[in-house]
Each structure stands twice: as structure tokens, then as C-alpha cells.
Amino acid sequence: MATNMDRRRNNAPSGGTHAPVFARTLREPEYLQTLRPTRARGQNELRRIYLQTGIVPSASGSAYLEIPSSTSISSSTLIKPASSLKIVASIQGPKPLPRSAPFSPSLLLTTTVKFAPFATRQRRGYIRDSTERDLGVHLETALRGVIIGERWPKSGVEVVLTILEGDEDGWWGDAHASGSGWGLLNVLAGCITVASAAITDAGIDCVDMVCGGVAALVRNPDSKDGKDLIKILDPCPVEHRDIVAACAVGYLASRDEVTEIWMKGDVGSDPDALIEGATHASVGSLSVVKEVLLESLQAKFQKQIENSQGAQKRKAEDVEMTG
Amino acid sequence: MAVPSIALPGQLLGSADKYFPGPGTHIHESSIYASIAGPVLTSPTPKTTSTTTKPSPLLSIQRPDTSTDPGILGTGSGGGGTILPEVNSVVLALITRLGPRFATCEILVINDVVCRESFQGQIRREDIRATEKDKIKMEESFRVGDLVRGTVISLGDQSNYYVSTSENEFGVVVARSEEGRLMFPVSWKEFRDPVTGRAEARKAAKPF
């Protein structure tokens, strides 16, 4: 931690980003469990996604993704019911490479993923840590497979993602829920989706739109021995006490190709089913991306069409001067 | 199959034997797919050399206009202006440095589109004019701060695009005299100060 300190800023005290809840103040231990959020949607149902492109004026392309938490905040407790995911992506470039860089016949892709200091339950530093670098590498492999780099020789593009709020690894009420890393899979899938929307907004040539999706195997809370597993799409780690395995993919729907897989946990004998579930989840988020991009395209080109029509009209109205 | 009016990356546009792939598209398994988002344009292919069959129409995807003003937080913000110099594109460049063998310039405008970022270019001495190449003198052709119209002849090495001004239409378009006044061209190799009337040597572009 000491090596990762930022000496140029006033660092906030490390620790939580939310009001602490002391176990002793709770009236009875069972009371805590009644607050635990449960999954209200179906097994194959995704959380709702909010997406908007073109939000950073200075960037050549940008997008904002939010997966709001479905459970409402109750007034009787300070424990956050469920986390939501909020990511901003901005694209810088394509721009000429710096003078020192060697010749490159295709586009050089750089991805930077950074958690905001307040993004997670545990406060993050200002300097990128290993998790963020890891996410960046995963994102880069996911995007490298879709971009047609040969169309942009001698140039580089930077994909900068800021996670304003990350999906939690577990429920805040559980003492040791953090650190399991289940939330990171959701974050990666969100990063892939929002980066893809931003790249399309920037007008960089791609073979397809890559979208992220997550599927998980969880223990069925209704079963008696707790041994049978169910497959769910888009798991919200807060809502599940026992996640056994999870998988995030970057999936090209129209080509039926996968550019990135990240799997975690005990998958069992049939990993393909989990991957397939994740691709189904990514198709779900793709439909949102498509709608949003079409909407922004219409707004973008509406003005252009009106302008050209106006120019023609003006030309027609011009009267030739005669002596 | 009808061509869609608006396309997103990865969308099937048509078969490769019915259309030619234009800008913004790519071919995958003998079909043309969109690679950027935008309206699909079908235009007749320009006549190329010895095509015996009827030429197929060209499918391309339009990029957003760069002239539309980038509104703050609007959908029109961002995008546009991200084009690269290509061979044969006409550029406007600012001379930044003069060397004995070449002039360094900053490419600011490519084919009437203002770039987001400038590109580094180089005008070699032998590319300044087409005739009497051995007699060209750098300081009689350009000065630092001149605005030059030229054409890209090569993508060049790691950092420079190679620009040539060896046609009549290419050369210095805006030049300032030693006193800092804008000068006007009087011949293909001379600019004149409007006040002092002193002439300075430049490789002037032919005015339209």
C-alpha cells in the first residue's frame, strides 16, 4: 500500500467509502438477514441498462453506462441494498503516434481502466493498482479482436475508462464478502460494452460490435441440501450468497465469435454451458447498444441532412442578376 | 436483398459480387459488412480500366460532417475530424523548420477537413518543384511560418508524411514578409510585400 501512495494529493483516509454499520448495534442477528436483497428477476433476465453516447465533448467518442440497482433503498438501515455499475468511456484519437514511437502499420490500442477512489466499498488509490491493470489487459484483448487496425496506419488510440461505481463482490451486510472478485466480472463486461459503444461513436472501423455478458452458477437457496446449482445471467453478487462459478465474455453477435473469456470458480464438468449463458447475456446488452447508437446516429445525421437540404433550397432561391 | 439505409458495425450490407466495398465497409466470407456506424450510400463505381462487365455499385458508409458544430453534451459532440493523410490527398501545412535537405511542416488540413491533431510532414528538397531539381535552394522556396498547399506522396517513415509541392497548383499560399506583412504572389517564384514592394523568393502556388 505504501508503494502505491500518491504523494501529490491529499489522500483520504484509507478504508470505507460508506457509513460503517456496527454489528453490535443490531437488535438481533436474524434481523440483518431480513435486509439481504434477493433476486427478483428471472434467471435469464438482465438488469436494466442505461447507455448514452457522446457525453464527453473533447473526446472523439465517448459513452456512459449505468446499471442501476433494482432494489430500492430502505430507510430503516444504512446498509446499501445493492451496488450499481457506472462507467464512463472516452476515446482519444486516432491521433499520430509520438515522435519517439517506432513505425506501426496499424492502429496502436491503449486501454486504461481506473476505478474512481469512491467507486468501491474499499477506497481506491489514485494510482492504478494491479486489478485495474488486469482489467485493462482483459479489455484490450476484447477490443483488439474487433478493431480493423490496418485502416489507421501510424496512429494510436487511447480508450480511457473510469469506473464511477463498481459492482460489489458481495453484500455490505456480510462481513467478509469483499475480496472474492465476483463483482469484477460484471465490471469487465460493462467495460467491454461501454468501450464498444464509445469506439463506434468515435467512428473507428470495427468488424462488429463487441458486447460483454456475465453468467454464473449459484447454489439454489431453495434446495434442501444446497447442492444443486442453477445458471443465472447477469448475476448481481449482492443478491447471491453462494456463487460457485462465473464467466464474463466479450462476444461478437453477428459473427458468433468470442474475443475474451474470463472464468472464475469451480465450473464443473460443463464449462461450455456457462460460456453460452454469458454470450446470451451479451446479446441482451447488445440490443441496448444498438438502440442507443441508432438513436444517436439519427440525431447526428438529421442536422446534416437538414443542412444540405437548406443549402439546396437557398441555391434554388438565388436569382440570377440580369442587366 | 435491399441495402439498409442506416448501418451499425457488423451489419450485413450485401453480397460482394453485387457491390463493391467502399469506405467504411469490409468483406467477410464474400459478403460486405459495415465497419462504422452511419447512413449507407450506394454510388455508381467510377469507370476503371477495362471492365468488360457492367460495374457494380459502390457501397460506402458516410462519416459525420465535421463542420457541424460540436455542441456541448449533445449527440453531435465528439466524432468527426478523425481522418488520416493518404497518398494523393491535398493538404495544407505550416512550415515549422528548414533544413538543408528538407523542410519540416505540420499538416493542418486534409482534403478541406481540419484535423483534430496536426500531423508531422516533410517536404524534401527534390520534391519542391518538378524542374531543375538540382538547382533548388531551400531558403528560396519556403520560410518558417509559410502556409503551403501540397500533396502527400508517401506515408513516409515512423514520424513524417512526405509532402510534395512539385505541381503548379502547389506551393506557398500564405507568406509573410520580413516586416511581418502578408505578401501577394507575383510569379511562380516570387512574393511581394504590399508596402515596401520588396520581393521575396518563394515556390508560389498557382492561384485558382
Automatic annotation (TrEMBL), chain A:
GO terms for biological process: nuclear mRNA surveillance; poly(A)-dependent snoRNA 3'-end processing; rRNA catabolic process; rRNA processing; U4 snRNA 3'-end processing. Keywords: Cytoplasm, Exosome, Nucleus, RNA-binding, rRNA processing. One of its GO terms (cellular component) is nuclear exosome (RNase complex). Residues 1-22 are annotated as: Disordered. Residues 45-204 form the Exoribonuclease phosphorolytic domain. InterPro entries: ExoRNase_PH_dom1 (IPR001247), PNPase/RNase_PH_dom_sf (IPR027408), Ribosomal_Su5_D2-typ_SF (IPR020568), RNase_PH (IPR050080). GO terms for molecular function: RNA binding. SUPFAM superfamilies: Ribosomal protein S5 domain 2-like. It is found in: Cytoplasm; Nucleus. Belongs to the RNase PH family. This is 3'-5'-exoribonuclease. It comes from Didymella heteroderae. The lineage of its organism: Eukaryota, Fungi, Dikarya, Ascomycota, Pezizomycotina. The gene is MTR3.
UniProtKB/TrEMBL annotation, chain B:
InterPro entries: Csl4, EXOSC1_C, Exosome_cplx_N_dom, NA-bd_OB-fold. Pfam families: ECR1_N, EXOSC1. Its main location: nucleus. Residues 43-60 have a biased composition (Low complexity). Keywords: Cytoplasm, Exonuclease, Exosome, Hydrolase, Nuclease. GO terms for cellular component: cytoplasm; nuclear exosome (RNase complex); nucleolus. One of its GO terms (molecular function) is exonuclease activity. Residues 84-112, 117-155 form the Exosome complex component CSL4 C-terminal domain. Gene3D superfamilies: 2.40.50.100, Nucleic acid-binding proteins. Residues 43-78 are annotated as: Disordered. It is found in: Nucleus, Nucleolus. One of its GO terms (biological process) is RNA processing. Residues 6-40 form the Exosome complex component N-terminal domain. It comes from the Eukaryota. PANTHER family: 3'-5' EXORIBONUCLEASE CSL4-RELATED (PTHR12686), EXOSOME COMPLEX COMPONENT CSL4 (PTHR12686:SF8). This is Exosome 3'->5 exonuclease subunit ski4 (Csl4). The gene is CSL4.
